[in-house]
């Protein structure tokens, strides 16, 4: 487990040593020491007095240097802690956004698939209804044909019973021959409608899962900042980014994908733009194998930063 207390103490010691060394090497410190040594005449003071004065000078100088070093080291440490805290807060916020984006993406996919299933179900029901209608008409035609066949059979049987060589005119008087012929002709004449046009209207969609639920957003830790204030820029995405390019609107660009720290040295409104390249499947590859299977697609996102 990392000992944060020792880490903080070590960092403070490093900052203190750095500030103290810089102050000792400064020209002001050297000039003060030189003026004390060069311009204190030996004939005006005894050795004891000079030693006492020198020790007093060194004590006061050291105390001033020490206080300045301590204060500066503490300020640096506090600023670093505050910066780390701000970065952690930003990271937590972005993590929450990523979870929210993932949840929204899943909801979009779920809604899309439900709509797809509903469309398929509607088309299938439409086709089933048309099929049932055709079945009913075929059954009606078959029943009609069977009735005409039975009628003709009955006529033929009746004629066989009544006909004999002694009464040839009997059949003519009842006009049974023509009735039998008409019944036979009626077989198969019951019409069935042509449903070609109706069948064309029924289109059962494929269950398509090729649905673009791409989510790509950019966020800044703050949108209104002071001059030279450092803020972080982050990307929230549901896809893998091959390459990115940040344009901060002040002439500076970056190809870093995340956790970008940036400050602006002039007042004004800056339009920050992200260009992202994503590898997607080439739909034309299915019909033309000479083409690349994957192609690059560009996405652009913009964000406004106000510097006061």
From TrEMBL:
A Pfam family per the record: PKD_4
Top-rank taxon, per record = Bacteria
Q: Which InterPro entries match?
A: Ig-like_fold (IPR013783), PKD_dom (IPR000601), PKD_dom_sf (IPR035986)
Q: Which residues form the PKD domain?
A: 245-276
State the protein's name.
PKD domain-containing protein
The source organism is Helicobacter bilis ATCC 43879
Provide the taxonomic classification.
Bacteria, Pseudomonadati, Campylobacterota, Epsilonproteobacteria, Campylobacterales
């Amino acid at each position: 487990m990392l000992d944060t207390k020792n880490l903080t103490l070590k960092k403070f010691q490093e900052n203190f040593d750095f500030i103290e060394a810089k102050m000792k090497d400064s020209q002001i410190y050297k000039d003060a020491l030189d003026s004390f040594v060069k311009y204190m005449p030996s004939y005006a003071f005894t050795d004891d007095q000079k030693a006492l004065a020198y020790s007093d000078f060194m004590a006061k100088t050291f105390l001033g240097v020490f206080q300045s070093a301590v204060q500066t080291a503490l300020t640096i440490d506090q600023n670093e802690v505050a910066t780390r805290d701000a970065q952690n807060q930003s990271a937590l916020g972005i993590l929450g956004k990523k979870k929210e984006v993932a949840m929204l993406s899943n909801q979009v996919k779920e809604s899309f698939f439900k709509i797809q299933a509903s469309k398929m179900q509607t088309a299938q029901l439409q086709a089933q209804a048309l099929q049932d209608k055709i079945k009913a008409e075929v059954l009606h035609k078959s029943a009609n044909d069977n009735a005409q066949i039975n009628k003709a059979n009955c006529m033929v049987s009746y004629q066989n019973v009544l006909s004999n060589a002694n009464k040839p005119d009997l059949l003519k008087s009842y006009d049974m021959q023509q009735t039998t012929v008409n019944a036979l002709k009626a077989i198969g004449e019951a019409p069935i409608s042509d449903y070609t046009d109706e069948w064309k209207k029924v289109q059962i969609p494929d269950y398509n899962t090729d649905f673009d639920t791409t989510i790509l957003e950019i966020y800044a830790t703050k949108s209104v900042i002071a001059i030279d204030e450092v803020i972080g820029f982050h990307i929230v995405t549901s896809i893998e980014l091959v390459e990115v390019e940040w344009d901060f609107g002040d002439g500076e660009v970056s190809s870093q994908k995340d956790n970008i720290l940036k400050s602006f040295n002039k007042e004004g409104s800056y339009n920050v733009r992200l260009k992202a390249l994503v590898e997607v499947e080439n739909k034309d590859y299915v019909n033309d194998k000479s083409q690349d299977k994957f192609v690059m697609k560009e996405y652009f996102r913009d964000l406004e930063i106000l510097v006061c």
